[in-house]
Design goal:
2 domains
Length: 139
């Protein structure tokens, strides 16, 4: 059959996305509040109502459109292009961002902030003690 005339089988797409997410039919069924047999039947369906598709998409952690537009070829292309830190989709090419800061700098900043907070706490405690001593001297 020619791929141009091949129909979009939504159930197979759901099944494949579920498998790629490492989810069993039983887990999907439990999340949807249906039986495993119902999930099996759902995955054999060529078409699914929008409302049910939205629920399945939410459980799988993808959008309804991601399920509708899913193809093995796009997944393979994504992972093949992943090594060059970019990927393409219908909106264009996107570059994956690399870490632009030194983690050690962030650690030093966090330590310095902790020191500043400690100094403020210590100063507040000193002021409290001085106030209490002043009150006790009056008595």
């Amino acid at each position: 059959m020619n791929t141009a005339t091949k129909t979009s089988h939504i159930g197979r797409k759901i099944s494949r996305i579920r498998e790629l997410r490492g989810m069993k039919q039983e887990a999907l069924a439990a999340e949807l509040g249906i039986s495993q047999q119902s999930v099996s039947s759902l995955e054999q369906s060529e078409h699914i109502e929008d409302e049910k598709l939205e629920k399945v998409a939410k459980v799988l952690g993808v959008s309804k459109e991601a399920i509708e537009n899913f193809s093995e070829e796009k997944v393979i292309n994504f992972f093949n292009n992943f090594n060059d830190n970019s990927f393409s989709n219908s909106q264009g090419t996107f570059a994956a961002t690399n870490c632009t800061f030194n983690p050690l700098d962030k650690l030093v900043q966090a330590y310095e902030e902790k020191e500043r907070l400690y100094e403020r706490l210590l100063q507040a405690e000193k002021e409290k003690v001085a106030y209490l001593e002043k009150l006790s001297d009056k008595n």
